[in-house]
Task: inverse folding
């Protein structure tokens, strides 16, 4: 009889809650989590975004895939197909694992391969799910290390390293106009391919001499050595890692007391220009960006008539696997998302590495505000392009003006 008596108040309380239309298990103050979809179907190499709505707590949802051999998911809920099959992605709260929701994920094999040397369709403008691939933990420590190498004409040049969100350390150079009163504009520099940050030392020194704090980083391929393109899944991983590393480079500039957070620009040359077309669609903190002799990205580059030979030795399966992996993150899909960040696109009509037609495709994909400058030059655009670039950056972030003496 004692057990029955103990149950009576509980049953009465549950009945009272039911009469008021409330769930006796989920009270109004209990944390709740709901995903935006019950099921997702996607192809291998394609991504889709699910969002979590969390109520009655500020704690973010944590995502996990039950079978990472079928699909992976990042911290923002971007699900990527890995292999054909079915699995579940589960979202939970770390402090309350019983609060959860799940989405069924079906991954399909794309249409049968062909061995034609044709440029694939890039599928339109990138989506928020595509952008979420490049999310990173901005609160993670940078662990910045700096070694001063020289000081010339008031510009201190340092070798640097900081933690990469993709693992390992990002290496590069920092150019600091140490004799200038702050706050100063900041510029992120990105080199060509093959190449490294020291390839940009001349531009870094010159921009710092005109008042900017400049950071140039090594791309992931420059840090590992070997050919810059592997034509494997590693190229996709490294391109995603580069976008996270560039965002961390912005974090490095913003952490400096002598940099104005509202006057940070990007300047990329060749490969750095193409990757800049992706970066400007991901990074929202840029005041302006210059894309010098850029095309639409690696897929655009290696499916053009001038570079088809680089893929000729690949098997049909390897070629198509690479195209499927890289096409969703092709920079030309992301450059429309740069707006309202002003862009300067500089190209050469005689460029044998970036044909005029490929440059024009990238220009057409960019939205206003944009400035396009053509030069009767090859891949090296010449001195007029430097003057134009400097004056344009001065108008955007406030560099010191060029004079006859500099």
Result:
């Amino acid at each position: 009889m004692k057990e029955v008596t103990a149950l009576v108040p509980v049953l009465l309380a549950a009945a009272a809650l039911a009469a008021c239309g409330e769930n006796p298990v989920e009270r109004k103050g209990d944390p709740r989590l709901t995903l935006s979809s019950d099921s997702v179907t996607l192809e291998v190499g394609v991504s889709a975004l699910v969002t979590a709505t969390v109520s009655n707590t500020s704690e973010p949802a944590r995502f996990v895939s039950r079978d990472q051999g079928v699909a992976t998911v990042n911290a923002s809920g971007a699900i990527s197909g890995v292999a054909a099959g079915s699995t579940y992605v589960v979202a939970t709260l770390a402090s309350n694992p019983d609060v959860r929701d799940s989405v069924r994920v079906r991954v399909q094999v794309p249409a049968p391969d062909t061995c034609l040397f044709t440029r694939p369709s890039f599928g339109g403008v990138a989506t928020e799910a595509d952008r979420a691939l490049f999310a990173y933990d901005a609160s993670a420590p940078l662990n910045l290390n700096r070694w001063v190498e020289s000081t010339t004409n008031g510009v201190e040049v340092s070798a640097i390293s900081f933690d990469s969100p993709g693992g390992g350390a990002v290496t590069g150079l920092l150019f600091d106009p140490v004799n200038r009163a702050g706050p100063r504009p900041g510029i992120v520099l990105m080199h060509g391919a093959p190449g490294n940050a020291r390839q940009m030392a001349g531009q870094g020194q010159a921009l710092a001499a005109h008042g900017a704090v400049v950071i140039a980083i090594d791309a992931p391929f420059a840090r590992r050595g070997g050919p810059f393109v592997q034509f494997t899944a590693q190229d996709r991983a490294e391109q995603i890692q580069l976008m996270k590393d560039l965002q961390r480079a912005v974090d490095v500039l913003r952490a400096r007391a002598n940099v104005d957070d509202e006057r940070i620009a990007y300047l990329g040359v060749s490969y750095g220009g193409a990757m800049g077309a992706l970066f400007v669609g991901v990074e929202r903190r840029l005041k302006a960006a210059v894309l010098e002799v850029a095309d639409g990205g690696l897929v655009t580059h290696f499916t053009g008539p001038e570079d088809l030979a680089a893929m000729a030795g690949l098997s049909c399966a390897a070629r198509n696997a690479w195209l499927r992996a890289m096409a969703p993150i092709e920079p030309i899909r992301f450059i429309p998302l740069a707006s309202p960040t002003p862009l300067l696109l500089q190209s050469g009509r005689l460029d044998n590495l970036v044909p005029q037609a490929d440059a024009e495709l990238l220009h057409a994909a960019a939205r206003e505000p944009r400035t396009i400058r053509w030069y009767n030059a090859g891949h090296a655009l010449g001195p007029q392009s430097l003057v134009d670039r400097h004056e344009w950056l001065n108008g955007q972030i406030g560099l010191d003006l060029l004079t006859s003496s500099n």
